[in-house]
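Running log. JK asked me to keep both predictions on one page so they can be read side by side. First protein, sequence followed by its tokens:
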Amino acid sequence: MRYYDILPDVAGGLGRGTVMDTSVHPPVVSKLVYQMEGWFGDVLITSFPCFLVTEDAAHALSKIGFTGATFAPVEVITSEDFRELQPEVELPSFVWLKVNGKAGHDDFGIAQNLNLVLSERVFDVFDERGLPSATIKPFDVRHEQR
């Protein structure tokens, strides 16, 4: 199976109310509030160390089954800039994608460089729904030494 190293769009950041342990790296987030700054249609977005997916994409992923991640609730808020610059944009519902898999083995994984790695079948689900701002390149499992 082929894998992809993906850098999703950073559509915002961790908002007030996020609970995070920064004594470890990467930080461990136990409650996520995502503050949207600008959204251009990507169904997979990020703000280190968290990932969000649209509910539509999450449902599609659940239908095919996947390994290496779970979904959890997220509170999405919008910044003043977002409301001013994109007042016509109606955000879809998002869920928190909590990745716990091994890169190049599971459908979702985190590489040594902390990038997200997706299997081809999971990538296809996202690609069909839209990743206009993501940076995508093939992932070489041979270079991943854990």
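And the second, directly underneath as requested:
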Amino acid sequence: MSTTFSSLPVVDVHILKASESTILNTAGHQELGEKLYDAFATVGFAYLIDAPLGFTQDELFELSREFFALPLNQKMKLAKKSFRPSHVNTYRGYFPTQPHLTPDNFKEGFEIGNPTTDHNKRCSTRAQRINLAEPNIWPDAQLFSKQERLEHIYNELQNLAANLLSLLAAPLGKDPEFFSSWLDNSLSTLRLLHYPPVTQATEQGSEQGEHAVRLSCPPHTDSGVLTLLHQDATGGLEVLNAAGEWIQAPYIPGSIVVNVGDLMARVSGSRLKATKHRVRAPPPNPDAADAFGLSVDGEEGSVVYGDFVRKKMATFVEFREESGYETGTTEEM
């Protein structure tokens, strides 16, 4: 369990910009490794600032917006087998929102893996449903031309993760190259996520009487080693401390949020903490369809104005589908 922290620590990693190797053993590197260890041992999370990356957050989010702006039928061509049984990709690709199944996990995403992974490597038995070594799947280049750029961003983030792991090796009492083999044919994932505005979501509150909140992603711990998160000004990330309080992790311009996953906690003998976290739902966009995205509060709870009006309109004869006129509809999937 983490400590009763009230904010996430901020760690400056500018020293990594001068490094040419993943073996980092100067006094400055050792000091940075200790700072990271302390952050992960007490909170499990930290902000990284001044990281050695050759892309900006604005560029990354613009790439993400470009992908999610694709028509749904094009994104569904990349859907994983669990969403399109005829597809062969089980681990990489696109997943749509599922508000009817998981109303508190309202997001869509696109995932790619290591561009240089040996894709001839397959699961050892047919019983394993998910092929962790499958190749990436991409949209048509005429619709989305940023494959090469995203692969480059993947490699940069992978190198940053390798440096962080090398720094953590000494405080954990391990050889500096202990984690190197973990990154050969890595199963690391670069995941683009889009959290649409939530109009109806599960509301969760604590037993201590916390006000109910709307969630886009429910409380969880990450499964892997380290997670590097770029968040925008929308925010919504909250981290659970030992007192059972949800601590906001607001956006810091130019920063990367890094946190420990379950596997890293296990390898460290639980010295490093995989801390539970969640994502609050973003508010409805008041610019969408004028005021129809606004949430209106009242004595009987809140309601989204557009949803309320549409429900009421369904009772009006002029808006009923069984009006006697033939209508044509199209469904895009």
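Observation for JK regarding the second prediction: Residues 205-209, 286-293, 316-333 have pLDDT under 50 and may be disordered.
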